[in-house]
Amino acid sequence: MSFHPLLPSFSFLRSNGEITAGNPHPLGATWDGRGTNFALFSANATKVELCLFDKEGRRERKRITLPEHTEDVWHGYLPNVTPGQLYGYRVHGPYAPQAGHRFNAHKLLIDPYSKRLVGNFVWTDAHFAYRTGHKREDLSFDRRDNARSMPKSVVVEEAHTWGDDRHPQIPWEDTIIYEAHVKGLTERREDVPGELRGRYRGLAAPAMIAHLRRLGVTAIELLPIHSIVDERSAIDRGLRNYWGYNTLSFFAPARRYTHDDAMTSLRTVVADLHNAGIEVILDVVYNHTAEGNHLGPTLCYRGIDNASYYWLTHDNPRYYENFTGTGNALNLTHPRVLQMVMDSLRYWVSVYHVDGFRFDLASTLGRTATGFDIHAPFFAAIRQDPVLGNVKLIAEPWDIGPGGYRVGGFPAGWSEWNDVYRRTLRRYWRGDGNLLGDVAGSVTGSAHLFQHDTRGPRASINHVTVHDGFTLADLTSYEHKHNEANGEDNRDGSDDNVSTNCGVEGPSEDPTIVEARRRLRRNFFATLMLAHGVPLILGGDEVANSQNGNNNAYCQDNEIGWVDWSNLGGDDDLTDFVGRLAALRKQYPQLKPHRWLQGKGPDGRYDVMWLTPAATEMTEADWKFPDGHFLAYVLGPANEGGAPLYVVLNAAPTALDFVLPSWPGNGHWKCAVDTSQLAQPLDAQPQAAGTKLAAPPVSVLVFAGGA
């Protein structure tokens, strides 16, 4: 069934002039100093109306038909329309879901290229293109106007005085990433001024910058800051989308993190972080939108050109391909959809000076009609783009569609979240045996995954915890998820956490359990910072932030989701410990190599040697030692005259004896890290090669060599 809506007519004339043809490029609303050009892509629309609103966004003052249609772009130019003008679109065309078309001009739509949105989104049945009480959405049509409940797009002035701001351009091998939520990072931080807490500007508060520098962090990776819509299901439970993975606009920053203009606030923060030598990486969600599945609302893309923007099922385009688990997936094989994503990425680099992107469910972006393809249009476009050539590109290398798990399968130039590292180290420090080979591969960059197509160790983004899952404190305190606060009967979130509670589920005051948990946290940080690749730290892990066992706090915009800083300065504060590891990483370049290790080189020297407790080189039998928990290796110096490092990992519950190895030009070893204690190593005096020592149970030791 197909519906063609009839709407009341509005005057095309304005007291200050008539609309003219304008230009099809650039897309969006572009002010030129005299007026504004409006351009909107839709391949299947029959008419596009531009709606101008009063300054409060409550009354639609004018409805103007865009007069020209060039290569699927509808466009027009209005003189004297200046920055601050609120607008939206009504797009006409067939309502024929069986054919993939869902036009309904009774629904006000935001501009996909909105640089700013004003007004709050309010859930109402008027946002749906069909009558929500009807048995089938494809056989009904809703004529209610939703404009009063929709945010409005705004014409903006993009000029900004950046002064001498420059991208820090931290080399990949020197990069240490800190993942954080804009609000959650500072909402409970008492040394951040009250008016800045939970806001963009709080990220660059002096206390926050000082903390990041103490950690040795070089980049902050922010959970999504694109404008979003809170899911109706969350609102109905008294919650909201806290994480932000439900994008409405790919160009407009979320206003919920500022009391003033979001554009100005965010650019000021980026400049301040750059001045402190800290890069800004954005977590971006180009795999799906907030419009959901075939029963979702019509807010933007669905009403503009559903058949172009989304992957629709081949046999029945009424339905959406759901590679993402959210109900829809953007189709980046369509040139105009790809253009929108590329324009968005360039916009954030050019206008906001961001330094990189982490792509949520990035496998979806590389999908073609035949599945995931490293030669997909998106990857090709990224590779040749001059604006994006120097920014950091990080993939979350999976989605839930067929063949969607692609860890190690992204093109050269990309880095990837390495969940193989995460799972391996979690199992190892939990006490699982028979993992020596897996651990060795993980701490030396996971070559078995990434050593291809000129990729180097920096392709691996190593992490133990991220926003999705347990925090580090909870990883060592809970063996089961506790997501009851999410209102989904604890059904949401993963059941496979590879965690340990050290003997008691949840909080404990038992000194033995408390110390066991602290030691495990130190071990995780140590192996993370010693491993080849790029370390990623979850914000708050350094102060034992807990979510009370909630491993899916996406809807917890409250004390569950916010970082608890009460341990700062206490026994659970590992900030300085992590900072010392970062300094060690900086001091010894063999911890952050450009190239893959090869063991014994042509000159007979080793860049890595794997050793038994007796300091002999490991054999095949040693690698297969049943239930092995001890792993030790020497990393040879990266430069002539440099010092080697000897790393000892002991996941056994008992102390194990080992011998300090001999190394050419190296007569003694000095302990630099001992995770069995928080302060300096027990014995920082140099020890001669051949000395027998004991590795404490469940610990990491690092020795620096000397002549």
Describe the structure.
This protein is of the alpha/beta class and 707 residues long. Helices cover 19% and strands 19% of the residues. The radius of gyration is 28 Å and the shape is elongated. Mean pLDDT is 95; it is low at 3-16.
Low-confidence stretches: 3-16
Strand order of the largest sheet: 14-15-16-17-20-21-22-23
Counting helices, strands and paired strands, the structural category is alpha/beta
Number of helices: 14
The CATH architecture designation of the largest domain is Alpha-Beta Barrel
Q: What's the mean pLDDT score?
A: 95
**What proportion of the residues form beta strands (DSSP E)?**
15-25%
* The top level CATH class name of the largest domain: Alpha Beta
Within the CATH hierarchy, at the fold level, what is the topology of the largest domain?
Answer: TIM Barrel
Per CATH, the superfamily of the largest domain is Glycosidases
Count of folded domains? 3
Report on the biggest sheet: 8 strands, parallel, barrel
Spatial shape: elongated
Helix content: 10-25%
Give the distance, in angstroms, between the N- and C-terminal Cα atoms: 84 Å
The radius of gyration is 28 Å
Q: How many E-type strands? A: 31
List the helices and strands and how they pair.
Blueprint: E1 13-14, E2 17-18, E3 28-31, E4 35-41, E5 47-53, E6 60-65, E7 68-70, E8 73-79, E9 86-92, E10 95-96, E11 101-102, E12 117-118, E13 152-154, E14 177-180, H1 182-186, H2 206-215, E15 219-222, H3 232-236, H4 262-275, E16 279-284, H5 301-309, H6 335-350, E17 356-359, E18 367-368, E19 371-372, H7 377-384, E20 392-395, E21 415-418, H8 419-430, H9 436-443, H10 447-450, E22 460-462, H11 472-475, H12 511-530, E23 534-538, H13 575-587, E24 608-611, H14 620-623, E25 630-635, E26 645-650, E27 656-659, E28 668-674, E29 687-688, E30 692-695, E31 699-706
Helix pairs in contact: 2-13, 8-9, 12-13
